[in-house]
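Hi V.,

You were right to ask for the full record rather than a summary. Here it is.
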Amino acid sequence: MAMNRNVERAAGGFVVRQRGGVREVLMIDDAYGHVAFPKGHVEPGESWEQAAVREVAEETGIEARILQPLSRVEYEITRAGQPVRKQVRLFLMEAVDAAVDPVPQEVELRSAYFLPWDEAAKRHAASGYANWGFAFAKADVLWRLHEGGLEGRLRAVAADDDPAAWDDLWQEAAPVIRQLASAVRDEVRTVAPAWPLADVEVHPEQWPRPLSDPRAQICAAVEHTLLKPEASALAVEAVAHEALAHRFRAVCVNPQHIGRVADILAGSDVIPCVVVGFPLGATDTAALAAETEAVVRAGAREVDMVIPVGSMMEDDIWSVYERVAAVCASAHRTSGVQVKVILETHFLTYAQVAVASVVALSAGADFVKTSTGFAPSGAKLADVALMASLAGGRGVKAAGGVRTRRAAEQFLRYGATRLGTSSGPALIR
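Predicted structure:
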């Protein structure tokens, strides 16, 4: 969907409190006769988060803190005869003082109140706005990830850590992962109904999978990578020859070098791979498509692209989808060329990793990939396992910081089908 240059932004909160052992949700009755969540305009100079906290306090008198983003909806309205794109973002929030009851802003609201979770969900289903129909299911799983620090515990585990301890933690998390996947599918289906939703088959319990021949499986998965800005042509050629010697799966380089790498790899089973929109993803859509066409003409047989990371961080899935779809359309015109979509998971919440995966796959991605290697951290085992649980048979690439044999094996056990690394030879010694 093309973005309208005229936009209005609003932010608010799905506010939760625990009182007397009961989980309650802050609801409002708005001036239009609907049950809703407190929200209002983002003022110039404010962040989404600042606006959400301020609007909840102004509309209801409740001071609340943000736990993490919930979602975003967009729709067209008409203002003064001109089309305007309305952008509304909600955050999962927690009331700071559970003893304080809401006081509604008289000018805009009819009432504000806390209701027990199930009662609030029923009232919203009966009288709420349809485009937020997924909110309770999504908020529930986010709350479960928050309680007991489950999200933090999952993402704190390094691939080099004790495999048995991780196996136990993943099995504990599997029911929540299944719930997250279901909530995300409903979310994307609701906010972007025109998209061809990816066929996501969620089986988190299938991990870990056994490795019958770890060394051979690592070789078959490694994409020998050199993307450093200071890389010389000679260094790139050396990486290509090294990949041939070890029979790695692919060689991944910057666009400047793809023609020479394709020549070196010609006649072998090693795939010439290139990155586009790298490493920030903040690229014009038409430019991405043109770059993709150029690198495919030069010999690339796989294309790794970066999503606009800042867009995904603010839940702008429309900008992400548009760019992924454009690259996939350009790449897929040539038979056999596949696209890997880099999510840069370091900057995303766990739920945003799930949403970004579903969006990329819906836009035509053949693989989802964790990282560029330029962020403060790279692939995490929890992210790879989540992405693999959502991939529905498509590929998952763990990249960024894959430097040891144990890490490589763990990523493969938990669903990775490719390993992006500059340490390929060290992994198989």
